[in-house]
Amino acid sequence: MHSLSPAFHLPVLGCWLSLCAAESFFACPSSCKCNSGNLEVDCSGLGLSSIPSGIPTNTRTFLFLNNKLSILPGAVFSNLSALQRLDLSNNFLDQLPQNIFSDLGNLTELQLRNNSIRALDKDLLQHTALLRQLDLSINGLAQIPSGIFDDLPALRSLSLRSNRLQSLDRVTFEPLTSLQQLQVGDNPWECDCNLRDFKHWMEWFSYRGGKIDQLACTLPKELKGKDMRMVPMEMFNYCSQLDDENSSTVLDNTGPPCTKGSPTPSKSKSGPETEVEPSVGCPQKQRYRPVSVRRAIGTVIIAGVVCGIVCIMMVVAAAYGCIYASLMAKYHRELKKRQPLMGDTEGEHEEQKQISSVA
């Protein structure tokens, strides 16, 4: 039996080495599931409290759902520059380091749903310009920092549902020129002057074809349960007055800043200690509240009724004037036909009597 020639062994050895290199290049972390075809690493539902080491550098999808992750080290994703999809939903994250996503320049989808995140740094997404989908729903966010979306021109879908948001600033959302879908429901929205400008942005966003779910008001009680987009703009007329008063207050306040307490100057070291008394120069600002919806609608109805009555009265007066003018013209025509010859004083007296009786 003839042995195989060395020329045959070389291609087989090359294929075997390349296969081993490919397998080692996409080595799967222990207890995780990996798919070398689409370069996906799935470590979901394993009860893990930290990101496992040994994730291949060419991974495009990393799934880490339903675990016990509470802390993310700052450089945990530093070697995953090819990552496109990252899902950390259903964990216990309460904060995110400022530069946690700084090395993920190819990231297009970021899922942070159902965590305990209470605050976001404005530079958190500074290096993720290709991001298209962002889910921050079911967290503890009380505000969205201005400037956090400035570097996301490709973002199409954003979810802020089920947080603790009470107001939003339209300046924060104006850089999202590609946004198509926004979810803001299930938040304790306070529909006051702080939300007025965002209402304008929502109307513009809907006008250009964007989809947004219901933004139901929680406060004030007159608007509870109503969609902010359906609230008449007349409800916020008081905001202009509030802005004018605030601006005049800033111009008039040339003295020291107002404080809750002002200590009285000390008399001497041997004297009694000074006590802090409340300052009388800090009057409590009255809180403006929007007018009632019923009152606004009632004002419109009353104004319409008054205008209608005035119009009817003008029409009746015009008709009466026309009728009176036609009767007088007819009377003068008949009077000319019956007018006696010139010099008949008796006819003239009779004409004057008839005119006076008609008047």
Automatic annotation (TrEMBL):
Residue spans of biased composition, Low complexity class: 254-271
Record keywords: Cell membrane, Disulfide bond, Ion channel, Ion transport, Leucine-rich repeat, Membrane, Repeat, Signal, Transmembrane, Transmembrane helix, Transport
GO biological process, one term: potassium ion transmembrane transport
Classification via PROSITE patterns: LRR
InterPro entries named in the record: Cys-rich_flank_reg_C (IPR000483), Leu-rich_rpt (IPR001611), Leu-rich_rpt_typical-subtyp (IPR003591), LRR_dom_sf (IPR032675), LRR_TM_domain-containing (IPR050541), LRRNT (IPR000372)
Membrane topology: Single-pass membrane protein
Transmembrane segments: 296-329
Disordered: region residues: 250-282, 340-359
Compartments where located: Cell membrane
Signal peptide: 1-22
One GO CC term, this protein: plasma membrane
Predominant subcellular localization, coarse grouping: membrane
Taxonomic superkingdom: Eukaryota
Domain LRRNT positions: 27-61
Domain LRRCT: 187-240
The protein's name: Leucine rich repeats and transmembrane domains 2
Source organism per UniProt: Strigops habroptila
Gene: LRTM2
